[in-house]
Amino acid sequence: MEQPGSELVLVKNISPHSSDDSLLLYLENVTGEDVKKVFYGQCRTIAVALFEDKIKEFSKAVVKAKNKALEGHILELSLMSCCDKIIIKDLPKDGVSADYLELYFESKAAGGWEVKKCTFENEKKRAVVEFEDPSAVPAILSREHEKLGTSVQLMPYVEEFMKDDEVTDPGSSQVTKGTTPTRIPPPLPPKPPGEVLRKIVQQKGVRVLPLHQTSQDDNMVPFPSGRPPTPSGDSSKDHSWQSTSMYDLTSIPPKGSLQNPAPFMQFSPKPPANQIADKDIKEDKTSGMEVSSGQNEPPNQQSQGQQQPKEKETQKTIKSTKSKVELLSKLGFWADTVSPSLKTGFKEDGIIEYQGTESAVRDVVLKTYEKLQEVSEKMAPVSLPLHDLLQKKEAADRINKAFENKAIDVVWKVGGSVIAITALGEKNAEEAVSVLLALLHKEQYDVDPDSQGMLATATFLKVIEDLQCRHLVVITVDRAIIVFEGFLKEVKESLKAVQDYFEVNAIVTAALTAGKRELKYLSIPQIKNKIRETLEMLNSKNPVLRVSFDIKPEEGELVLRGTRDLVRQAKETIDKDFIRTITSAKVDVNKIGMTEFLQETTGSSLLKTIGSDNQCYVELEVKATQRPDSAVSEPTRIKKKPQPPQAKPRQKATGQQKDIMSISAKFLRALLHQRRVEVPAEAEAEKDEVPETKQVKTPQVKKAPLHLMEGGIKITLVQADITKDRWSSVLVNVVTEKLTLQYGLAKIFLNAAGEELEKALSSQAPGNFGEVKVTARSGKLPESCKEVYHMVCQQYKPGHEKTLRAMVEECLKMAAKSKHPSISFPSVGCGGLHFPPPLVAKTMFDVIMKFAGGEGAKSSVKYINLIVWEPRTYGAFLEELKSRQGGAAASKVEDDDDDEGEMESESDSGSDDAGPPPQATALAASSGTRASPVTSTIFIYGTKKGVAIVTRRIQDLLKKHYKEEQITEDVIRSLTKKDLAPLQDKAKALGVGISIDQKTTVVLIKGEASKVHSFRADAMSFFSSKIKECSSGSWKLQQALQHGSRADHIAALAESTIICAPQYWSKKYKGSGSVISPKKGPENYQLLPVDDKMRQAITEMLQKTWQAHLVGHGRDAKGLAGYQNIKVTKVERVENPQQYLKYGFIKKEHCQKYQDGTLRPFYTVDSNLAKVLTSTLGIGHLDRHRLEEINEYYLFHGTKKENIRSICSTGVDFRIANEGGMFGQGIYTAESSSKADQYADATGDRQTTGLKMFVCRVLLGDVFYCRETKKFPRPPCTGAGCNDPKCRTHENFHDSVIGDAQKLFREFVVYDRGQCYPEFLVTYDRV
């Protein structure tokens, strides 16, 4: 089949009076490609153009056509990529049939195109041929088809061409380049020879001159016979020359260099025969034309001969725009082009009228069209305020002067919010726009909120009025913004004048500095109202310019705004009457669970009420936590690892040093109050945070890391300090928009990295929420760390999770781009920024899993760590991790928590995502009695009397709500730490502390009274359920399935005498895996919808194993060519306990083989064998439900719809399978969904929707890898060199056959239906 290079374009909105030549020239000009043929419609306003080559930039051609009219009509161009029919007219009545046409067009002579349908109408002598490939139409129309007959006409089948089931006569609708066809409808005036010759000029590269103007230098070719040919071919006969013309064809410049062909087209009548000597006339037998050398003609032969007839007068109108006409007049177009014999007129709306002889009008119209096509119009946007300014004569003169300096001829007009610019050529128009925009400028000045009252004063309005009178500028005031628009110089001068005005009359801003808690005390409503009343007394002296205040506790400032005098008085009053009267006290909280109680709604409300009643500020702060001991007392299992050498403690400050520091702090604070200086918020320190000589060392915490594999990337969750991560090459920090390292996690990084990190970060521009800043490693950060990524965050608001998602994704992409192998994230924003931990955990896991399963799988990043400190936040991340594994426990590095290496962390009291956060009580509360409780402190600020009352009431509150209880249960002795883990998680979530002693079987519960009572009930229920489970025969198997490793899982299945249903089955068989019992009678099953995660996993498996390049290939793939993919519409789970029971017993046998060492993954036997495709996708949601160690895989089985019920009920039955299978009569499954799709319907009746396919669990077991086609009645013998399926010498046989006969797909065949369980039924469509 040939590959067509031609292309069809549908052209609409053609003027009925447009000539063929003008349309051909127009299309070639617009597209830049040669037009081979044009096919017209019935009304000649629509046509189809056949181009010789593909149009390279069709979109530009469409835009160019919209900007260039043809005789006043804007043509619409569109590609006909879907035209797959042609119509053939004037077929001979005999010898041509539909079969003949099909055979002809499918033959090599016609291009070898496959015919889809041929409709033959013998009476009308025409046929319609439809092709499979639309690209056949332009290719066929480009060829000559002499075998169909010389009179046969071929046209594209276009609906717009049809009218009453009739097609326009191709003879009058088909125009071939280089020809001038004759049309019947509608009647047009005869074509002057000039148009025909102009086409010849462009195609053949010739020039046309009158015969009498030629000379010997013109290189003419005389006729061979010396005379022009006669109609009958007899040169002896004489014929009249009065109605003929002779032209001289000489070479001219090639196409493209001819800008104006009119001067080369001079037409003159041929002189009479008696004035031409026979020697000067020769006959060209090859061309059939007469050419005269003109050597003996006198120069004025024509004027001396017969008188020429007078040429007709005509009138032509060209529709253009007023701007274009003005530009051509400005350029002197008509003065240089129009002859004096022509009359030219113009109208207001841009219409040009020519009146004169036909030839003169025709030439000038052609030139006018060509010139108008060179004109370009551009729009430059301007604001509405500039509209009136640009109408001024001074502004217009300045703009025109700028155009003159650039030597650009431009016509410009202002209309609405744009300036229309008309220039000769697009380049000049764009340059004119640039010149104009460079002249104009816009600036704005933001007025301080406290100075906005000045905008309405008469003085300020007078300043604005004077500036607009003196300068070409428009000044508008919109609330707090002053906008300057006009010419650049005037705008700058006006802006400077306004800035100077406000500088002189500015409202000053000053700040009083104090500690964070002191300022929060001043922010409580009662105290704030007192400050407001004090300032009102000062404002009463000047009601227009008032002093205002704003308390910023986080920045350590109380900001005052107003006139200088008012601000000075306000600072002195507030400092004396408020700040210096503040006293403070604190209450330590040491009881387990009480810190959480005070953070929850009830306790927090009680603290707030106590403080509000006594006009005090109350704040709860967590200071430090200690490492808890093991929650379960098991002396026989405890393993102790050698502890790393402890860092040398810092030298304690002496008494003299402490005194010096205390004096320095007090002196600094007093100096700031005395001088009343303005201090930036970043430089402020809280009153209670005077720099100390030591940093608080957080205790060591031990948590076993939890892992998740996705796409070859290991995702780890660990509870630790991120700045102590010794393995990651990238650490992620969280900062505010000011990029300061003073609070939360940022301060932890500052303590670890030192001031070098702070300097590197502060050197960058302030960030916006959602940006990620990058600095190099510094200070004491681990040597493995190469870079630190700083996420710019702010206080949480609904919808911020979208920005969080974008930041995490950006960090991962940056790490991959920089070729980093690992990256560690904190729990972003879960501390002081108040991001909800469950939402953060879900968002971060979504982004990480998507990255790991997509572009990250091929990147350098192989390890992604989530390092979380705060226990509650860690619990949220843990729950999300478990949900990603379908509720199963995450895999641990080691089974015993005590064996995990220790990690240290340093923190301060204001930590965000690392260090001991306020919720850290949960860690100790869920760990044990020997664990020191979380130490938190309640700070109280207010007047001396109020602080004393609040302190006493808080102490009474703590005593009232603390309680201890204990439970004794003998079953505790038989439980392991993993068995007790759910109870500990429950305690952690509830916020109570438990200590379990397995020797005494005592559980001690401590915490807030109501929670202790609630947890006691839950614990009793938990132990009751464990007593029942321990008495069940499936206990050991269930423990192995839930908590054991894969080796434990296989060992438990090998030893078990029961079969448990999968854990994700419905309630009837739900599981910690409910036991399946054998039953007699019909096998019942149910089809149930799967959850979203399982549906996503199944869909991903089908789509990733779809091999589009193999679709339609192979013996069983007939009729599938052209399908690119499949779309899953429904996924259902088949729950058939009896079928799964058969499958489970065979799986048990294979586990026993694995335990005996006789069964291994087949690809480990021979390294050249490829793994099963479905096992290489990294779909963890499916991979964890199968055992690859015994060659258990998910494979595809396609079948027709009528077989679905039977397979769901009794499984896939190989006994009724096709006996012609390549490897015998067995159950065939595939690793590619495109292979299974071949069997979803009959080859002769392919469907597109509602197709079915099973995703089966298949136990391949001991695999026989076959590299040739061979029919097996069962798998062959395992004896060395035997491989005989009917062997009677050996006892052991393979379990399955993998057929790899060098075909398109591998075949996976089992010969026992118990080895194949059809677990998921997928409904899909082909696309």
Describe what this molecule looks like in 3D.
A five-stranded antiparallel beta sheet has the order 4-1-3-2-9. Strands 35-36-31-30-37 form a five-stranded mixed beta sheet. A five-stranded antiparallel beta sheet has the order 43-44-51-47-45, with helices on both faces. It is an alpha+beta fold and 1327 residues long. It is built from 38 helices and 51 strands. α29 runs antiparallel to α30 (1009-1030) and α32 (1046-1055) packs across α34. GO terms for molecular function: NAD+ poly-ADP-ribosyltransferase activity; transcription corepressor activity. It comes from Lingula anatina. It is found in: Nucleus.
Number of strands: 51
Q: Structural class from helices and strands?
A: alpha+beta
Low-confidence stretches: 164-173, 178-194, 204-305, 626-702, 886-933
- Across the major sheet, the strand order is 4-1-3-2-9
> Termini separation (Å)?
25 Å
Number of alpha- plus pi-helical segments: 38
Give the strand content.
15-25%
Name the average pLDDT.
76
Main β sheet profile: 5 strands, antiparallel
State the gist of this model:
One of its GO terms (molecular function) is transcription corepressor activity. This protein has 1327 residues and is α+β, with helices and mostly antiparallel strands.
